[in-house]
Design a protein that fits this description.
alpha/beta; eight-stranded mixed beta sheet; six-stranded antiparallel beta sheet; 18 strands
């Protein structure tokens, strides 16, 4: 199937009529892409002999970069050395943008966009790649919650869960606007991060539960009878998700070997998921002893929803139970930065203790993967 897709893409790029001829041309050219070099630089290649302009763009460089046309019809771009990280990219050919690299079979989805990716090995990049370590299990399960509907979740259990009788602490990890229960798996690399952190001894073995916060839908697009709906934020900040969340915790506790106390539960999320984490943890302070807000949309609830009223009063109630960790992280260039400044001022005014981490860049998955890798080692100690 991948070979067929590659040839079909070649049909567009080559502008010829014979698939056999295209295949022969393709095989006789060096189209290795992306090629990661020992110094961390990367060469991108695309065979498009009839194209007049080819560019590459991604989170490894600012803006679109012109690729050079070689005599054999291959377009090429060589990057500067990159730091160890996971990067995404796409091509544009004669103004047609967001094209996949036909030589790279590795994709990840963010909301409705698909992107090729590559990893520069090293300390951070290796954390996001599968290593020769004991591996946990990722399950896709259906949970009946308080609204009476079955909802889909992704649940990670650590290596050894199936063969032990131990009880485990639980991290509830929430996605952002337009995301779903696949987001932290596909783009957040949660399975690789948790496997590697646990194997290193940097994090306690834990269960990670990833729900779908778009409450008007049962699952990610294409995984339920709803069909291929377009990803978007629906029913996400009207208080519905917060109200149903205790029933999700109850379902997990019934169906998994969990430690069922607040010091063995954490909740964290990015952007809208940070908003949900803040709201859920203050509404149900007896449920969670650890809270993580990653680039959180603090003040973005729908007006008129009573659950979002009396914030200071509810924070006093929450912090009277002395959370083990209240962790806030955001990038300096994040569009939600000032919102987080105002929230920290509110916490300071009330004398509520928290840990604050400020990073470079903005509202991007690169930051959120880092935040997870920093937050998880602090849990359940």
């Amino acid at each position: 199937m991948n070979r067929l897709i590659t040839l079909l893409i070649a049909t567009v790029l080559l502008g010829t009529t014979s698939l056999d001829a295209q295949q022969n041309l393709w095989q006789n050219k060096d189209t290795t892409s992306p090629e990661v070099h020992a110094d961390g630089s990367v060469t991108f290649r695309l065979y498009a002999p009839t194209a007049e302009s080819v560019t590459v763009r991604g989170d490894f460089v600012a803006g679109e970069q012109a690729m050079q046309r070689l005599e054999n019809g291959v377009w090429e771009y060589h990057s500067a050395p990159l730091t160890s990280e996971l990067y995404t990219y796409s091509f544009s050919v004669d103004g047609l943008s967001n094209l996949h690299d036909p030589s790279n079979p590795y994709f990840m989805r963010d909301v409705g966009s698909q992107m090729n990716y590559f990893i520069i090995p090293g300390e951070r990049g290796s954390l996001y790649a599968a290593q020769d370590v004991p591996h946990g299990t990722l399950s896709k399960v259906w949970c009946k919650v308080s609204d009476g509907r079955m909802r889909r979740m992704s649940i990670y259990t650590p290596a050894g869960y199936e063969t032990s009788r131990k009880q485990y602490p639980v991290l509830y990890l929430l996605h952002g606007m337009g995301g779903d229960e696949e987001a932290w798996v596909a783009t957040g690399r949660v399975v690789e991060i948790m496997d590697n952190l646990i194997a290193r001894g940097d994090a306690e073995p834990m269960i990670v539960v990833m729900t779908n916060g778009c409450t008007k839908h049962l699952s990610a697009p294409g995984f339920s009878h709803e069909g291929m709906w377009s990803p978007y934020m629906s029913g996400s900040i009207d208080g519905t998700f917060e109200k149903m969340f205790p029933s999700i915790v109850e379902w997990v506790d019934r169906n998994y070997r969990t430690k069922r106390d607040r010091v063995s539960r954490a909740i964290a999320g990015l952007s809208m998921g940070g908003f949900h984490s803040m709201q859920i943890s203050k509404e149900y302070p007896s449920l969670f002893g650890y809270v993580g807000l990653f680039s959180a949309a603090i003040f973005r609830g729908e007006e008129g929803v009573k659950m979002y009223d009396n914030l200071e009063v509810k924070l006093h109630r929450q912090f009277s139970k002395e959370p083990r960790l209240y962790w806030i992280a955001i990038g300096r260039d994040d569009f939600l930065y000032e919102e987080n400044v105002r929230y920290r001022q509110l916490l300071d005014k009330g004398g509520f203790p928290y840990t604050y981490v400020e990073s470079e860049e903005g509202h991007i998955w690169r930051n959120w993967r880092v935040y997870l890798s920093q937050f998880a080692p602090q849990l359940f100690k």
